[in-house]
Design goal:
With 228 residues, the chain is α/β, with parallel strands linked by helices. It is 46% helix and 14% strand.
C-alpha cells in the first residue's frame, strides 16, 4: 500500500507549530526582561530526588550560602531536592534566590525558598536552558541524574565551540564525579574525541569554600556580564 504524500492532519500539525512560535517568543521575552534585572548569579544543579537529610542536600545549602556571601545570587531549576537546597541556602543568607521552574508531569514543583518576584515558569526546556546559560556566572553541579548531565554537557559544549564565553563549571562531590571524569580521560580523550585542553573547562570541589575560591579566582581576570 502506497503511503499518501500528506497524511491526514499534517496541515493542522504545521499550523499548530507555527502558533507555538508566539508562546516560545513570549517565554524568551519574559525571561530576558526578568533575568537581566537580577544581577550576577551562579546556578546550582543537582537531583530533584535528593532528600533533606542527604549530605549533598546539606552541602548544597552551604555552597549557596557561601556563594551569596561572596556577592552572587543563586539560580536553580526551582524544584525540590538539590534545587530546593540551593534556594534555601541563598534565602537563609539573605541573597537573591531565583527559580526557573519547568512544567513536568512528575517531580517538579516550586520550592518555598525562591524570592516571590524571581520565580519564572517555563513550558520549554530549551528556553529555560538559555536563561541558565545566559545569566549564570558559573555552574555548580551537584550529584544528579540525566537532567543534571544534560545541563553540564551542554554548557561544556557551548564553551568548547566558542558559542559562549568561558565561565566556571564546578563539579561538587569528587566521590560522585571521579568515575565520569576518569572515563572522559581514559576513553574520550584517548580516542581523540576531545582535546586535552577541554578538560580544563571542568573543576572538581568538595567544599563550599573550594567552590567560591574557584569562582573568585576566575573573575579576577574576567568581567561579570551576561554570557552572550
Amino acid at each position: 500500500m502506497r503511503r499518501e504524500k500528506h497524511p491526514k492532519g499534517w496541515n493542522e500539525i504545521k499550523t499548530n507549530d507555527s502558533w507555538a512560535l508566539f508562546k516560545i517568543m513570549g517565554e524568551f521575552v519574559n525571561g530576558f526582561e526578568k533575568m537581566s534585572a537580577i544581577g550576577p548569579c551562579v546556578s546550582i544543579f543537582g537531583s530533584a530526588r535528593t532528600k533533606e537529610e542527604d549530605r549533598y542536600y546539606k552541602l548544597a545549602v552551604d555552597v549557596a550560602k557561601s556563594i551569596v556571601e561572596a556577592g552572587y545570587g543563586v539560580i536553580t531549576g526551582g524544584g525540590p531536592g538539590i534545587m530546593e537546597a540551593g534556594n534555601k541556602g541563598a534565602n537563609v543568607a539573605g541573597g537573591t534566590s531565583v527559580g526557573l521552574n519547568i512544567d513536568l508531569p512528575f517531580e517538579q514543583h516550586d520550592n518555598p525558598y525562591i524570592d516571590h518576584d524571581k520565580s519564572l515558569d517555563f513550558d520549554y526546556f530549551f528556553v529555560r536552558k538559555v536563561m541558565f546559560v545566559k545569566y549564570s556566572q558559573g555552574f555548580v553541579v551537584m550529584p544528579g541524574g540525566f537532567g543534571t548531565l544534560d545541563e553540564l554537557f551542554e554548557a561544556i559544549t557551548l564553551i568548547q565551540t566558542n558559542k559562549i564565553a568561558k565561565f566556571p563549571i564546578i563539579l561538587v562531590g569528587s566521590s560522585f564525579w571521579t568515575g565520569l571524569i576518569d572515563w572522559v580521560k581514559d576513553t574520550m580523550l584517548k580516542e581523540g574525541n576531545i582535546s586535552p585542553k577541554d578538560l580544563d573547562l571542568i573543576k572538581i570541589a568538595d567544599t563550599a569554600d573550594e567552590v567560591v575560591e574557584i569562582i573568585d579566582a576566575f573573575y579576577k581576570g574576567h568581567d561579570l556580564s551576561p554570557n552572550f
